[in-house]
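General statements about sequence and structure are easier to judge against a single worked case. When preparing material for the folding task, we compiled for one chain both its residues and its backbone structure tokens. The amino acid sequence and the backbone structure tokens for this protein are reproduced below:
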Amino acid sequence: MQSRVRGHVVRFAGWLVCVIGGFGGLVAYGVAQQPASVPTKLLWVGVGMTGVATFIGGRRLVVRARRHLADVLGSADQLESGSFVLYLRTFDDDAARRATQHTHLWDAGGLLRLFFLSGRTQEEQLAVALRPAGALVAVGRPGEDLPEVGALRLYLPDDAWQTAVLDLMRRARLVVLAVGGGQGLLWELSRAVEHVAPHRLVLFVDLLPDGYAEFRAAAAGVLPQLPDHPLTSPFVILFDTGWTPAVALPARRSGLERRNQLAADLTEVLGPVFHRLNARD
């Protein structure tokens, strides 16, 4: 259950743990570069690894604190038509969307980058990228103790969720569906194709080729022309006025990762979507 007091306490503790872990990791990295015996170097490598683990644990605490402090919608009536983006996904994917930005750690550069990458979750970065179209709104998982962060949560009764979701689809400025498994998601996809204009539907794909192939086969009765996996993810699928799909990928970049890489990539590929929405408003 949400508690703002607990949220503030956990956030402070999380940041403190991050500072301790980050400081320990950076000091260990610096000392390990100096000439020393093998046992000493191994000792400082162990200290550095402990610092990294502590830092990652601190970030997880901060994310949990934000879940305590997240706003929750009491009713769909609070949403003005055309002012929000509806985010559809399978509830089983919520844990994956809770992950923060990561990088490889097999070299010193990766270790240093870890401490400066964004602490936002994938869903939070998705919300940032979609902000030009409106606030991101999602139906909350029934019975969850804390809402996820990123999209505003709206909780619906089990016996009326389909009617409510259909109404939200019609009223949303944009509908974003994160592809995955489950009959509920396929139902939402079929209703979106029936009731949402093509320029108002975006498919967000963060699956390996095998997982995407399973979704494409399951969705063949709704969207028979979904494109092949581009062998890199995440990516989005956009539709023209005749429901012809096209993969949208960001321009390939070299060099260091950006602090909010997912948000930056999605902002780039969703530019045409925002332009079409503005042109039709």
Notes: The chain has two domains: 1-69, 72-280. The CA atoms of residues 17 and 58 lie 5 Å apart. Residues 1-69 form one domain.
